[in-house]
Write a structure and sequence with these properties.
2 copies of one chain form a homodimer. In chain A, 43% of the residues are buried. The first copy, chain A, is globular. The first copy, chain A, is an alpha/beta fold. The first copy, chain A, is built from 12 helices and 16 strands. In chain A, 36% of the residues lie in helices and 25% in strands. Chains A and B meet through helix 8 and helix 9 of A and helix 8 and helix 9 of B.
Chain lengths: 419, 419
């Protein structure tokens, strides 16, 4: 990794794929609002920049924290909201419903509503996965397991409708039927049904309950197995809205070339792509011989000064590489703060939720280089003004009047607003 | 590898999957042929034991050899026919039709007819592959390449109908669209169509020309990518008759466990499985770091005494492992004699076509332990006799009368024959 990688080709592609030159016609009481000074400012990105939930945020949203714990959680939230507009919320079945019939709906719903109230897009993760599933499936027949899984999807998609409208429906289907670390109900039914039939059943179940939900297939496998599986599912008519790709890079940043190669394998489907679980550590790398990342159990995994600088460079490259690809619509960081999954120094924030260089660099991009700060302009004789900005939501202000509008198509946009 | 591996569990499975106890009722002029001495002898196996063509056999079948070359070819053929009942014939497009419109139909047809006349099942390999394809595709548009590929399938399947009724229709589709060693027409159209749509087109084309042909998908990839591709194709309704699995073990014998694991991944489709290209060398192993076997270019790769003994043990284990699985219906060795592909000592015969221990051991199985030599029996008062044998074709003789019959169902069979 070069310290100063030339990203000008990525920067150009990002502007081409993500920005629009908007011509806005402003009217006031039916007439052109001509020759007036206005202020235009970006309010949100159309692109989803996000992270997974914090346990502390869930606790805070449920009024469970006080004192220093509460302050810490609020610091995390402030940093989250400064940078992000998307949150992935936990639906691991084994934690969500350890006792059959007693799902943890209320707590997660409170957290999801909090994120929604802050203007974030929320996603539930996952509805169907062989890992962290419920033990009580093991005493059921395959037919009963399938029925329980279907009903679990129906319940969650229904209970959270209007708050969570985006779901990782099936997680890690490539390995699901050959997962051999321990017996579990999902591997059993995936072996019996096959991957495609299992995926079809879960997607059709979710779709039937919430026809307008955005439904993802999600996997960490980026070998041909995954794009062949996606192809098989799409050929079979399964209503997959978004291809989800994990990139837990605990063993080292992929680099631009590999990332672009992975993207290339999914480009032919012409479907939106979400990079759903992105990890780059700011400490030592996990040894390359580890196959299942969960096998790497360490008591301490410190973030280092040198590691934080490397992480910052790599995070910038990673985000730019993804933003430059026209089909990518979301990047979700995993985890926002150190000490989450695998106790890895994977955060953009440290354990005390103070920003690392990677956070600062991302902020410079997401709310700096890729953002329109409040800008004074004057409308022309026809009440028009123009600006170039990233797709998303903008606010136009003049005096004490405010109006918001969105630009959603790259290239050129025509917008009309009335004050 | 233990020298004396206990194969009794495999041997039991083979008898269970491959043999039948046949009760044969013999009639003569409409009456039971009672209390008579008869001889029953196996004539062929239902299971396909085969090898790929020999260049010398093709030359011999076309009258191109004389002298020592001819004697050598005849020795190879004698050894081939003593052991095998299936031959795979070469249809590499780049060699078959290097000049557009001038296919090598006659020579291959003569060779196929020769194998057919010797009682062998013939298979054409392959109809669609990115390697060894024709260079003249490179100057065509993708649409023209696709049309040329379709017409090539229509021509071959039609020209060889009645002689070749079994085809490797698409070869190595997992890697086809991402093959990056050199530009070629098939990678181009596979990238555009996707794997499943390409496979569908080729299978439907072959099926339309010869509705009763046996059509294989064939691959060396035994990662989940391949079984997921098969699943996608079957879900998409593509008429695949047989799943073809290559096992070029130049880098070492897989062993029983891996072979059974690979088989297990394809068992759920309940389709016949052919092990289409089997290689175990009797010399040093190719280094493990070689990814594309074609990269291993050596001038000499000798067969050794020690290697031949190891090969013999491994070949026996390999054949027994495959014969023990109920869905496997064919095993094709690659190549029969040393000095073929990659100049590897992969033969069951040496370069001069003399048998190695592996050949002798296979002969003991295929025409010994798994074979019914001529056996004297006496019919009972109802003209009946019983025997247990491997599925296949048998001849009943008495005096100068001969009649053949087949047993095709494992377990128990009832057969009636009339003298």
């Amino acid at each position: 990794m070069e310290h100063h990688t030339d990203t000008s080709h990525l920067d150009r592609a990002i502007r081409q794929q993500r920005t629009t030159t908007a011509t806005v016609t402003v009217r006031h009481n039916g007439s052109p609002f001509a020759g007036q000074e206005i202020i235009v400012a970006q309010r949100r990105h159309q692109f989803l920049f996000g992270s997974n939930w914090g346990e502390s945020t869930i606790a805070l949203a449920n009024g469970e924290l006080i004192g220093y714990e509460k302050e810490l959680a609020e610091r995390r939230n402030a940093n989250f909201l400064q940078l992000f507009n998307q949150a992935t919320l936990p639906f691991y079945w084994g934690r969500f419903e350890p006792q059959r019939g007693k799902p943890d709906t209320r707590r997660i719903l409170n957290a999801a509503r909090w994120y929604q109230a802050q203007g974030c897009v929320t996603k539930g993760h996952p509805l169907c996965w062989h890992t962290l599933t419920v033990d009580w499936l093991l005493s059921l027949t395959n037919r009963e397991i399938l029925q329980a899984q279907i009903e679990r999807i129906q319940r969650e998609v229904s209970d959270f409708a209007g708050v969570i409208e985006m779901w990782d429906v099936v997680n890690e289907a490539v390995i699901m039927p050959i997962f051999d670390r321990y017996d579990n109900g999902l591997t059993r039914i995936c072996q019996e049904l096959g991957r495609i039939e299992l995926i079809r059943t879960m997607f059709e179940t979710a779709r039937a309950v919430n026809p307008k939900a955005t439904l993802l297939l999600n996997d960490f496998d980026v070998s041909p197995a995954y794009d062949i599986l996606v192809e098989g599912c799409l050929e079979a008519g399964i209503p997959i809205d978004v291809i989800g790709i994990q990139s837990h890079m605990h063993q080292g940043y992929w680099g631009v070339e590999k990332t672009q190669y992975v993207l290339e394998q999914f480009t032919r489907f012409n479907k939106p792509i979400h990079f759903t679980e992105n990890t780059i550590v700011s400490g030592h790398l996990m040894p390359p011989e580890i196959v299942d990342l969960n096998d790497y159990q360490v008591s301490g995994w410190p973030s280092t000064l040198e590691g934080e600088e490397r992480q910052a460079r790599e995070v910038v490259l990673h985000f730019k590489t993804l933003m430059a690809h026209p089909l990518v619509e979301a990047i979700t960081w995993w985890d926002l703060s150190d000490g989450g999954w695998l106790n890895a120094p994977a955060g953009l924030l440290r354990k005390d939720h103070t920003p690392k260089p990677a956070y600062e660099e991302l902020l410079k991009l997401i709310k700096g280089e890729w953002w329109l700060a409040p800008t004074k302009l004057t409308t022309d004789a026809n009440g028009r003004f123009s600006f170039t900005g990233f797709l998303g939501e903008y606010e136009l202000s003049t005096g004490d009047q405010h109006v918001t509008f969105s630009v959603t198509e790259k290239g050129e946009s025509l917008v009309s607003v009335s004050l």
